Amino acid sequence: MYPSSESSSPPRYHPVAVLLHWVLGAALVAVFALGMYMHELPFSPRRLQLYSWHKWAGVILFALAFVRLAWRLTHRPPAWPASVAQAMPRWQHIAHHGTHHALYALFFVVPLLGWAFSSAAGFPVVLFGLWPLPDWVPVSEPLAEALKQAHKFAALAMGALVMLHVAAALKHQLIDRDGLLARMGWGR
Q1: According to the 3-state scheme, what is the secondary structure of 92-105?
Q2: Based on the number of CB atoms within 10 Å of its own CB, is 58 exposed (0-12), middle (13-18) or buried (19 or more)?
Q3: Domain boundaries 9-184, corresponding CATH code
Q4: What is the pTM of this model?
Q5: For 45-74, how does the pLDDT look when each residue is reduced to its tens digit (9 = 90+)?
Q6: Rounded Cα distance, 42 and 65, in Å
Q7: Are 77 and 17 a contacting pair, CB within 8 Å?
């Protein structure tokens, strides 16, 4: 549980944390939507182009996840207002921490599984068409199929956790009206 503090307005996250949160969140939604769209397309130059963009975005998200994790490990989040911390049932505290830990893990797992799938399928990741990344698993059709399913499952799990995170934020904003959403917003 985060420590709590008393004040009329909840303490806010640092602007860097806010920027990382919203950039990573928007990018995750965009990459997820692209992944859902492109996998249904018939084989074509357009589909190959979208797969390349999806891979590039995955590499960028992977790097951004390291930045976000480094920031989080070196900057403590703001304290919850005591009234909010005390009003939340224990299961909500556990769900909060579990969701955040799982999201951080999936920030790394999903792109790593995608990269491994691409390597196993024999399609190297070439960032922006210029910089080839090393293949770190052997080319293998059975391995590629297993990694494809693992990548899909992990991405769907992350999508579900993102929706749960958004639902919890909206609950705090619209039902509890406790001001927690403003802590991750812009402005004052």
Answers
A1: HHHHHHHHHHHHHH
A2: buried
A3: 1.20.950.20
A4: 0.86
A5: 999 999 999 999 999 999 999 999 999 999
A6: 31
A7: yes
